[in-house]
Request: fold
Amino acid sequence: MHIRRYTHDYSRRVFLHRLAAGIVGLGVTAPLWKTLEAHGDASRAYPDELLSIEAYTKGAISTGGRIDAGNVDLVKELLDPIRYRQIKEMGRVLEVVAATTDLMQLSPWEYIEATLRNKGKARFDATGNVVTADGEPWIGGNPFPDPRSALEIFAGLTLSWGRHDISVYATREYDLAPGGTVDYTYESVWAELAPVGRLVVDPKPYWPEFRDKLRFQSVAFTSPNEDKGTSFLNIWPYDQNEFPELYGYLPAFKRIRRFPANQRFEPLIAGSTMYLSDAWAAGDPLLTWGNYRLVHQGPALAALSDGWAAGHPNWEHATHGGPGGVSFWDTKVQLVPEALVVEAEPVKFARAPVGKKHVWFDARTMLPFVMVSFDRKGEVFRSFDGAFSLYKNGASVVMDGAHPYWSWTHVHAHNIQTNRITRLEQVQRIKGGHTMMVNDQSAFDRYLTTSALRRLGM
Reply:
């Protein structure tokens, strides 16, 4: 007979106690990061009930099964309110896969290595920015993998979005009307480059010319023809009290325009439900938001593996649900043993339509996988849920140096008040010859300067 050391609700009591006491602590049966450092696997830090969907639901839902309107109430507390409503009322279905336990499969290899190597070397300076013990810009990896505050949880995300030194995403976007039909389709290239905290691309850890910058980020639309060349460039100061410089190129005017720095809560293109502020659930400087606090701790469902569409030559994903069967990406989720939900308010955006946001983080990696925002009345407003994966499926693999590429695969952005949905997917190639790139320094001249915006707009 197997004697259970922990009752089924033991972890729930632990999480509630921490939340009530204002304690940020990770792991249930053992400290999480000591366990990860020793074993590279979080399993020994949690009881059985948090390690498989079968144990959590007492056999009602199994790996290989589906979560749909008929059984979603069994896992309601594992979902944010918008994904729950999508499943309960709109025909969304989630496929359940086995939990990924190997830490090195949950983020880029070099990012995890740097997180382990640099653990304990970060602090906040007098201005509220993350620096090393010597007061220098951060050197790479997550600065606070074992956080002691909600601010520390969010700081690591803001410092590095895609967790690579340089990322170029070839992206297809589908914008759906309230009735479930696709009324806008776009192709775009999204680029990110980190001048500090560099782990792979020389010079590292800093590009000396730009060590006062946190990131360069751009998006350029390549299709349809009437929007081809529309592009935007954000240049982020390292100081998270300051707003990024925001430039745009509009083909109709054939010139670069500088936009107001706080213009971050409007769609970039017609039909979209995405704001600049939404990027990676941390699209604004860390200290332009405030009142960070932990509001929930417990298990959750997240799309962390098996999401790469290796069977399609351009990595395009299948859809289902909604009136026309095209509202949602087919998505594979797994049980995350511990998620942290952080609330933040846009304290430096007096006119923002958003009153606060909740962001769900995987406690093992501090990866955000869901964001839900609320309007100024406190009503649920919009959501942003992403899927992530190693780009490896059997013999098929996309390499990032010595290791398989890790990245996002697809995203939903849903305005629940208007019922408009934006679907994004990362593909291999889009019109104009733009392809996925990782840790390629040539991306700077190709995509991340105002001269590049002009070229892309021609």
The first strand starts at residue 66 and ends at 67. The longest helix spans residues 10-21. Residues 109-155 form one domain.
